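Below is a filled-in request sheet from our internal design queue. Each sheet records the structural input a requester submitted and the sequence that came back. We keep these sheets so that new team members can see what a complete request looks like end to end.

REQUESTER: design group, bay 2
PRIORITY: normal
MODE: inverse folding
CHAIN LENGTH: 48
BACKBONE (tokenized):
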């Protein structure tokens, strides 16, 4: 089995890069950004 080296994360609720607490931004934004950071720490290229 090949190793995962790239992933795209999508958020259809709001932009995952919006500041939490502004408009519709909140917990999902934090989850997407923090998950992306952890995957990047493992050497996986992440596109948001």
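RETURNED SEQUENCE:
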């Amino acid at each position: 089995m090949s190793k995962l080296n790239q992933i795209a994360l999508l958020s259809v609720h709001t932009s995952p890069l919006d500041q939490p607490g502004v408009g519709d931004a909140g917990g999902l934004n934090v989850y997407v950004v923090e998950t992306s950071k952890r995957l990047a720490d493992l050497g996986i290229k992440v596109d948001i």
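SHEET NOTES:
- The mean pLDDT is 84.
- The first strand starts at residue 6 and ends at 8.
FILED BY: M.R.
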